[in-house]
Amino acid sequence: MQPCVTASCHTIEAESSVSASDDQTDIERVLAGDISAFEGIVRRWQGPLINLAYRFCRDHGRAEEMAQEAFLRAYRALGQWRRDAVFSTWLFALAANLYRSELRRIPARTVSFEDIAEPRDVRASDGGLEDHDRDLAVRRAVGALPAKYREALILFYFHDMDVTTAARSLGLPEGTLKARLFRGREILRSKLPQLLAMPRLKEA
Asked: Of 52, 101, 155, 179, which residue is most buried, by most CB within 10 angstroms?
């Protein structure tokens, strides 16, 4: 499955609001002994989890493998989910922690800012860059950041998590998450100034 990289991707919040009750029903069935009910959770969240993994590693095959491992760990730890947060928040926190650990164990191929061509003009004839060119430039630039800033920006910008959810997923205080978002934008501004004029990199 190829990760979705366009604005048409479902956001975490949209998926959560639509499927929260279905998630809870399936979880209760699994915990009651109906293992097959976990298939519903996989169907709903497979695409978003692979997409998230791809943002971390930039490798389609590895993203699918990491997502499969995330589902396996979620299944084993399902009884630890507390009802004070929606299931998707817990699932994505578990997955993000797994992906970070995997990349510390086997780092992804690194990208340097020198490899990135900055957009020539963010004010093209139609008012901005073509979506594909803009997204590609932003993704590559974020991928060149140090891991702690890259992880924060991936969750906040590419997966539309709010500060609270992103901080919880990374196991950070909200203030630390905001500081990393700010610092990440500052690095991008110093390396590729025009990127910060793009709506994608709005302030937190």
From this structure: 155
The half-sphere exposure of 170 on its side-chain side, counting CA atoms within 13 A, is 25
Q: Is residue 8 part of a domain?
A: no
Residue 96 in this model has a pLDDT that exceeds 60: yes
Domain finish residue from 105, 122, 143: 105
Please compute the mean of the pLDDT values over residues 23-29 and round it to a whole number. Answer: 93
So what's the pLDDT on residue 3? 40
Give Cβ neighbours of residue 168 (< 8 Å, ≥ 6 apart).
Answer: 85, 89, 93
3-class secondary structure per residue, 27-84:
HHHHHCCCHHHHHHHHHHHHHHHHHHHHHHHCCHHHHHHHHHHHHHHHHHCHHHCCCC
Residues 117 and 145 in one domain: yes
Residue 121 pLDDT exceeds 70:
no
The predicted pLDDT at position 99 comes to: 92
From CA 11, how far away is CA 25, in angstroms rounded?
A: 21
